[in-house]
Design brief:
It is built from three helices and eight strands; from the N terminus they run ββαββββββαα. The protein is of the alpha+beta class.
Length: about 150
């Protein structure tokens, strides 16, 4: 975990990251990202992730955590087959920024997900929302396993 401290020692950005490897190709993992209806099969904390248009920079949509409210998001960046970044506002001063990166390897793919919470007292908010390194690692590991079990390379 890394923290960026600004303004009177209040955490302004909070970050966690997790990485897993899979024998599946990057294109197979990318296809799973593009299969929005089935995200719940590997991201057990998310009930819904639904862009309102094509999976490109600028598209907006809605996501819903399990047992949580439906929230708007915007895709900030897409590099097809490699990475995407989305931003979910959570209140007037905070946002969750999620980065998803695929790095091809000779024997598969390295998958890295990074979550930033941006805003005043970000660390406190992360604790209130129960974000943990273990949960993020579980999600990335589930994706790696799902890619191996459900996609032919």
């Amino acid at each position: 975990m890394r923290y960026l401290l600004l303004k009177e020692e209040h955490t302004y950005m909070w970050t966690i990251s997790a990485t897993a490897r899979t024998s599946a190709t990057a294109s197979s993992v990318w296809a799973i990202y593009c299969d929005f209806a089935n995200w719940h099969r590997w991201d057990y904390g998310l009930a819904q992730y639904q862009p309102d248009g094509p999976f490109i920079t600028g598209t907006t949509g809605k996501l819903q955590p399990v047992e949580g409210p439906e929230l708007p998001f915007k895709i900030l960046h897409v590099k097809e087959g490699h990475s995407f970044v989305d931003r979910t506002p959570i209140g007037p001063e905070h946002a969750i920024i999620a980065r998803h990166e695929l790095h091809p390897l000779p024997d598969g793919t390295q998958i890295t997900h990074t979550i930033d919470i941006d805003g005043p007292d970000a660390e406190r908010l992360a604790q209130e929302m129960a974000f943990t390194q273990e949960e993020l690692y579980e999600t990335v590991s589930n994706l790696a396993r799902y890619a191996e079990e459900n996609h032919h390379n």
